[in-house]
Amino acid sequence: xxxxxxxxxxxxxxxxxxxxxxxxxxxxxxxxxxxxxxxxxxxxxxxxxxxxxxxxxxxxxxxxxxxxxxxxxxxxxxxxxxxxxxxxxxxxxxxxxxxxxxxxxxxxxxxxxxxxxxxxxxxxxxxxxxxxxxxxxxxxxxxxxxxxxxxxxxxxxxxxxxxxxxxxxxxxxxxxxxxxxxxxxxxxxxxxxxxxxxxxxxxxxxxxxxxxxxxxxxxxxxxxxxxxxxxxxxxxxxxxxxxxxxxxxxxxxxxxxxxxxxxxxxxxxxxxxxxxxxxxxxxxxxxxxxxxxxxxxxxxxxxxxxxxxxxxxxxxxxxxxxxxxxxxxxxxxxxxxxxx
Length: 340
What we know:
The protein is mainly alpha-helical. It has 2 domains: 2-102, Tyrosine recombinase, N-terminal domain (DNA polymerase, domain 1, Orthogonal Bundle); 155-320, Intergrase catalytic core (hpI Integrase, Chain A, Orthogonal Bundle), CATH 1.10.443.10. The chain is 48% helix and 6% strand. It is built from 13 helices and 5 strands. The chain has a 3-stranded antiparallel beta sheet, with no helix packed on it. α2 (38-57) crosses α4, α3 (67-79) runs antiparallel to α4 (84-102) and α11 (295-302) packs across α12 (307-313).
């Protein structure tokens, strides 16, 4: 089972004999009509590859899927080492495909394990306490996703990483993540026309092709200007802002693999081992929250569809907790005249 891209740029599933999987391809075509991003279509495609490989391995048909078999599928994913968020996405893809092909929901019965009703708690959401939780007639099977705190980079780590950069292009890329909070894919997809220097704005195309406009800090504008003036090939045919600077593909659009290698090679230095694109973006969110930026504004700046996602980026780190604790204890010592 393999995922391929045809001559029209559409994702298609083929089996071991290179025969198309009609049901899956009709589903992918329907998903493409919705106008979802290429990355989303690709994720659906790979989810289908995993599902069909599991169905073939266990000699199941798509029509035979049930709640019990879906639970078995989740267990197989856990044994394969898939992360909880990945497993939940693949379960959703399996349910959507089944509904698309059969016109009904997957039946539940004996051997099915699903969350109890109101498993998220009655009433308001637990994060903000503002939004009412909708009642679910039949909670869907999901595995528990552990809550992890992503520690932002320290000032020393950021400064050390910036010292390792030798190209204006790389400096501009890191500045866009650190000072504007861009995702890796958003950096790679930036067009020359998206940098609105006179208006001091930056136009971003985020997840789901949602556009947002951010203020363009002077330091970021200068690093981009230096890159365009001194390094970007003048004859580059691509309209992308960031291109390959050397080798036979000089002037071609920079790829995600190329951007990841920029960080991977530098992380060999133990002093910046934690530095990666996502952590630079997380550092931006944490810095904005520490500076008092309100949640709705930060949500808009980071391009999140809902505030819960934004809160995941700005959860207090242990360093933040320790600093607040020390300030509070110092105040208590002054108040109660406790000797140090």
